[in-house]
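Good morning,

Attaching, inline, the backbone tokens for the sequence recovery test we're adding to the shared suite. The designed sequence is right after.
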């Protein structure tokens, strides 16, 4: 490894930290990857702003170090214990697909339900079924901090779904707009969220509905995040596949197009070559002084790096 520090998974990783990882792996050859990642996060007191141990981030770091040839992990013993990754989608009944059309006023007031754990099982199942069956990217339950919303009209009919999760690790257009250098980006990324799924089912054809829902969500998103995870959200991002969509609803809801991706999906075989579709990058600030908030050092309950 170069003697210079690298930033991986939001950590400043130098020779000393790498030696600590190597010693942990060498001293416990009988440990599973899961146990190693838990112990590494514990040793470094690697926690999120809500105080939860970031063992999944530690696991990703270990895999990255192995991919670069800097460590050798034990063989994988079993599938990930993360229940969300292998969760089966519900086999409940399909929602009614009777067309819903007409002016937005006929649907109001809308009900937006945030589906945190322990919420309404029927609505949670409906949310998952809608996204799994009708969103072009499908849906497998999210990992990490997230908020899920089901939107129903005044008759109780589902008319939209929205999922917000972890922000993209790197995005040149976004980071340039925010004024982030790599260290600030790594430190403050948890104050952003990504609108990873947004669905208005094909049988719902109501002008201005999508932008109206996005506006309603923007007004409550940071408060809901604060209540669930003990920290706010200052900016929302989304990535719109330009070959499929024009981003009209985001534009109508005052999201800002800040650029485009380079088509270098992180799973691509060569980071220098295009391996995925070009996407337009949209941002929505949720705080009037969002740049100031995103450039100021956070005050987490415990250190997030060694």
């Amino acid at each position: 490894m170069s003697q210079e520090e690298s930033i991986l998974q939001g950590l400043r990783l130098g020779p000393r930290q790498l030696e600590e990882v190597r010693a942990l792996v060498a001293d416990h050859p009988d440990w599973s990857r899961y146990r190693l990642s838990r112990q590494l996060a514990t040793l470094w007191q690697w926690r999120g702003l809500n105080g939860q141990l970031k063992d999944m981030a530690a696991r990703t770091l270990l895999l990255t170090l192995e991919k670069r040839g800097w460590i050798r992990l034990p063989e994988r013993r079993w599938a990930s214990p993360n229940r969300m990754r292998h969760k089966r989608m519900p086999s409940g009944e399909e929602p009614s697909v009777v067309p819903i059309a007409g002016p937005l006023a006929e649907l109001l007031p809308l009900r937006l339900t945030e589906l945190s754990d322990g919420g309404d099982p029927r609505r949670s199942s409906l949310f998952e079924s809608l996204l799994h069956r009708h969103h072009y990217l499908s849906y497998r339950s999210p990992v990490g901090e997230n908020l899920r919303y089901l939107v129903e009209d005044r008759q109780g009919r589902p008319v939209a779904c929205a999922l917000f999760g972890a922000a993209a690790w790197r995005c040149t257009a976004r980071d340039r707009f925010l004024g982030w250098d790599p260290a600030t980006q790594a430190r403050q990324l948890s104050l952003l969220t990504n609108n990873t799924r947004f669905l208005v089912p094909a049988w719902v054809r109501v002008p201005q509905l999508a932008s109206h829902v996005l506006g309603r969500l923007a007004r409550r998103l940071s408060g809901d995040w604060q209540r669930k995870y003990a920290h706010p959200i200052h900016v929302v991002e989304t990535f719109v596949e330009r070959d499929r969509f024009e981003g009209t609803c985001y534009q109508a809801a005052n999201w800002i197009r800040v650029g485009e991706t380079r088509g270098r999906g992180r799973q691509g075989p060569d980071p220098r070559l295009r391996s995925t579709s070009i996407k337009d990058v949209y941002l929505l600030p949720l705080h009037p002084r969002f740049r100031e908030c995103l450039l100021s050092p956070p005050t987490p309950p415990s250190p997030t790096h060694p």
